[in-house]
Design brief:
The protein has about 180 residues and is α/β, with parallel strands linked by helices. Helices cover about 40% and strands about 30% of the residues. The protein has 3 helices and 5 strands. A 5-stranded mixed sheet has the order 2-1-3-4-5, with helices on one face. A hairpin with a 5-residue loop joins strand 3 and strand 4. Helix 2 crosses helix 3. The radius of gyration is 23 Å and the shape is flat. About 15% of the residues are buried.
């Protein structure tokens, strides 16, 4: 006869085995978590006109997910990342049968370019944009505003990561 202690151990072991098989199944299909980005530059200056949120996301991702560091002076930088513009817009996507708004489309676009420490342009003026659709109901206006802010934060973080991935494709390694 099984005791409650043996049942707990058995269910714990079954749960651990199920988790192990799930993880091994996901890894077998080629899935992997976003890891660090290897950037061919050791120090980056962020210049131009990024919003405080985009600057924070760029600095955070550079500090935690790359082999580079953010510097405050151009003379210390191997790469100068110039944020030319950042634009966030919201447009109405759909209406209900009664004429009320039922969905928005959020657009976030960043125009940037990059120079090395000699002043040579390594990335010509480029733009990256992210689009998300947001459902909306008048019954949950406050929750929709909070969800929209969360979407925008996620979009800015995604833009910052895409910019750094574009930089990672450069082949030059600084000394």
């Amino acid at each position: 006869m099984s005791t409650p202690c043996n049942l707990n151990r058995r269910s714990l072991l079954q749960g651990a085995l199920l988790g192990l098989f799930s993880v091994s199944g996901i890894s077998a299909c080629g899935f992997r978590l976003r890891g660090s980005v290897t950037i061919p530059y050791k120090s980056i200056l962020i210049s131009g006109r990024p919003s405080p949120q985009l600057r924070y996301d760029l600095e955070r991702i550079i500090a935690t997910g790359t082999n580079a560091k953010v510097v405050a002076s151009g003379k210390d930088a191997d790469l100068i990342l110039d944020i030319v513009s950042e634009d966030s817009t919201r447009q109405i996507l759909t209406y209900t049968a009664t004429g009320q708004i039922s969905a928005y489309r959020l657009n976030n676009r960043v125009v940037f370019r990059a120079f090395d420490n000699t002043g040579a342009e390594v990335i010509a003026e480029s733009d990256i944009y992210v689009i998300r659709d947001l459902d909306f109901t008048t019954a949950t206006v406050l929750a929709s505003d909070i969800q929209q802010q969360q979407f925008l934060e996620s979009m800015r973080s995604d833009l910052a990561l895409q910019i750094l991935r574009r930089i990672a494709t450069l082949g030059r390694v600084s000394k």
